[in-house]
Structure formats: structure tokens, C-alpha cells
Write a structure and sequence with these properties.
The structure is a single chain. This protein is mainly α. The protein is 82% helix and 0% strand. The protein is built from eight helices and no strands. The longest helix has 44 residues.
């Protein structure tokens, strides 16, 4: 017997059960099943929308990176050559723990800001715009390295910036999605459309802790990559 039941087969079987129960006065059972099905569909739809929200935030970050790279020369804010040299020297000649700490703190800042915004009823714009600003910074860094070091700036970007930037952006987008959802919940409570659920904030803190752990692991991984590839760079 096939264990996988299609939606049409499930509804047909359920209706048959409801019809037989209705004869014996089982209308309440059918109504209860309909309510459970509606709730399940709402939950699935909500999860799907949250997944799309995270994807949209990541696409926003990528678009910001493209904008930062393309319009770098036309922007009023540029990266000084001294800052680039100091960044690369710190990466190449810095110690393992120093690089790990720098990457960890940098990634953590991009999570702390949306986390705090999520505790506010009007923090949605912060959570929505943070990925774009992070992407613009990554794109400007790429353009600055290429502008200063030419083609040699591409491998430097690929080793010292891209891995941590990609993983950090994923973590940041996840935290920003949580931030927007939490802000919406706080706003709904203030408007009286939803009862306050204390456990929700506990979940919010737990997921922020997961992001912090991700930032820590990111710092370790970034330091390992730097340690393995820094001998091929001379500055």
C-alpha cells in the first residue's frame, strides 16, 4: 500500500468520514477537522513567507554589493589607501587569535544592531536596510582593492574578504529577519491585536545566541583561511 497520500485523496477520505459521522450527529467533529486544517495551512504559509523574507534580505545584500562596486568611483565616500594597506597588513601579519577576534567582532556588530532594533515596535526599517548597507560595504571593499592593487586585488578579496563576508551576510540576514518579525510582534501587542507571549522573547534571545555562536565559528574559520593563504601575499 502506498504510504504517501495526496491532498485530494486525504480530503476525499476525510469527507467520507465526516459524511458518515454527520449521519450519527458528528458535525462538530468535521468542523473541528476543518479548523485544524485551516490552522495547519496558515502555519505552513507563515513559514513559507518567513523563508521568502530571508531570501529577499539576502538578495538585497547582493544588490547592495553590486551597487557599492559599480558606483564606488562615483561615490563621495571612498576607502583610503592607508586603510586598505592597514587592513591587509593586519590580515597577513596579524596572529591567528587577532584575526579570529576581528572577524568575530565585525560579524557580531552586524547582528547586535538588528537585534536591538527588533525589540522596538518601529524597528522594521533597520532590519530591512542593514543587509543592503552590509552589501554596499562589501562591494566598495572589492572595488577599492581592485582600484588600488589592480588584478592583484581580486585574490586578496577572495581570501581575506569574501568568505567571511558571505557567511556573515547569511547570519546577518537571518538575524534581520528575526528582527523584523519581533518588531511586528511588539507592534501588534501595543495595538492590542495580539496577547503578549513572554516565551516569544525567550525564543528571540535563544536565536540571537545561535547567531552569536555562528559569528564565533565564522571568526575561527576566517582565521584558518587567512593562516593557510597568507604566505602567498607579500605586503
Amino acid at each position: 500500500m502506498n504510504e504517501i497520500m495526496t491532498r485530494e485523496e486525504f480530503l476525499k477520505e476525510r469527507n467520507a468520514v465526516c459524511e458518515s459521522d454527520a449521519v450519527a450527529g458528528g458535525d462538530d467533529v468535521c468542523k473541528g477537522q476543518d479548523a485544524d486544517t485551516a490552522v495547519s495551512e496558515v502555519v505552513v504559509k507563515g513559514r513559507r513567507n518567513r523563508q521568502y523574507a530571508g531570501l529577499i534580505l539576502f538578495i538585497t545584500a547582493v544588490a547592495g554589493a553590486v551597487v557599492g562596486a559599480v558606483f564606488y568611483g562615483k561615490a563621495t565616500v571612498t576607502v583610503p589607501d592607508e586603510m586598505l594597506e592597514g587592513f591587509l597588513e593586519g590580515r597577513i601579519h596579524g596572529g591567528f587569535f587577532g584575526n579570529a577576534a576581528a572577524s568575530f567582532i565585525s560579524a557580531l556588530i552586524w547582528c547586535i544592531v538588528p537585534f536591538l532594533a527588533g525589540l522596538c515596535a518601529v524597528g522594521q526599517p533597520v532590519g530591512a536596510l542593514i543587509p543592503a548597507f552590509k552589501g554596499i560595504g562589501v562591494g566598495m571593499t572589492f572595488a577599492a582593492l581592485v582600484n588600488t592593487y589592480g588584478a592583484n586585488g581580486i585574490p586578496a578579496f577572495a581570501v581575506f574578504v569574501l568568505p567571511s563576508a558571505f557567511i556573515g551576510t547569511v547570519i546577518c540576514c537571518y538575524q534581520c529577519r528575526l528582527s523584523v518579525l519581533c518588531s511586528n510582534s511588539v507592534l501588534a501587542v501595543l495595538k492590542g491585536r495580539r496577547d503578549e507571549a513572554p516565551h516569544y522573547y525567550k525564543i528571540y534571545l535563544e536565536r540571537f545566541a545561535v547567531c552569536c555562536i555562528g559569528c564565533f565559528l565564522l571568526g575561527i574559520a576566517d582565521a584558518v583561511i587567512t593562516f593557510l593563504f597568507r604566505p602567498i601575499f607579500v605586503i
